[in-house]
Amino acid sequence: MSFRHQYVIGDLQGCHAAFRHFLKKLDFDPTQDKLWFAGDLVARGEDSLNTLRDVKALCEQGAAATVLGNHDLNLIAVWRGATKMRKKDKTAPIFAAKDKNELLEWLRHQPILAYPDEHTVLVHAGIPPHWDLDEAAEYAKQLEAQLQGSLYQLDRVLPHLYNNKADDWNADINGFTKIRAIANYFTRMRLCKQDGTLEFTFTSSLDDAMPDDFSPWFEWQVPRERKILFGHWAALKGKVDLPYARALDGGCVWGNHLLAYRLEDGKVFTSSAKCPMP
């Protein structure tokens, strides 16, 4: 299907009012246009429940698609009892809603990696320098299979996704350790070494001091056939725009803006409505 316009939008984080206002600014028409979301649909904004409902409805209409972010995975884990709700998250209304199971069943069946067009690839946090795009797509399928399988399978894997110690990626990695590492690369990565070693504590801007031997994953320049569109790193405020990578988390939930990248020409639009600071 051909569309009038396609936009890739960074982390919504439950900023429902800003999202609805942004759609009006974009003159979004679900019968002609399509939205792609970089994950983290929910968490710290004022209305995660209706944000999730709206995105689900647009996806089922064929007017949107999304990949999963770390906050989306956490929401699924809270639903299944694998972890507790974080104090900073404002997702309790989702679990009180009559349609919670329908929403979360839908959410867990969304992809980790998607292709908005022939020139781009969309993930939440990024693709590490030691994976080519074919490898990344295969690893995404492995994680998706775990998340989209039976509830028994889902309940087995979810407790293993949470560990603040980064796993070393090597030829022998397997089992839940491998699945956790894949999830960490796609949904939590900011800094890494060239061999893929991750660092989880740094969340600041590129102007701040970074741990020795670590760099932003996108600064390890490797040949890419597609431009990687990503969110997750709010402190970048969407200012990273490289030939092979484009940041799209404008930090709306932190008092900044939503960003939308128009696929046909690369133009970036900024929301005028902001979320209040949490």
Automatic annotation (TrEMBL):
Catalysed reactions, as listed in the record: P(1),P(4)-bis(5'-adenosyl) tetraphosphate + H2O = 2 ADP + 2 H(+)
Domain of life where this protein originates: Bacteria
SUPFAM superfamilies: Metallo-dependent phosphatases
Signal peptide stretch: none
UniProt-listed InterPro entries: ApaH, Calcineurin-like_PHP, Metallo-depent_PP-like
Calcineurin-like phosphoesterase domain segment(s): 8-170
Gene3D superfamilies the record matches: 3.60.21.10
Keywords: Hydrolase
Enzyme class, first EC level, given as a word: hydrolase
Its EC number(s): 3.6.1.41
GO molecular function: bis(5'-nucleosyl)-tetraphosphatase (symmetrical) activity
Pfam families on file: Metallophos (PF00149)
Function: Hydrolyzes diadenosine 5',5'''-P1,P4-tetraphosphate to yield ADP.
NCBIfam families in alphabetical order: apaH, PRK00166.1
Family note: Belongs to the Ap4A hydrolase family.
Record protein name field: bis(5'-nucleosyl)-tetraphosphatase (symmetrical)
Species assigned in the record: Psychrobacter frigidicola
Lineage: Bacteria, Pseudomonadati, Pseudomonadota, Gammaproteobacteria, Moraxellales
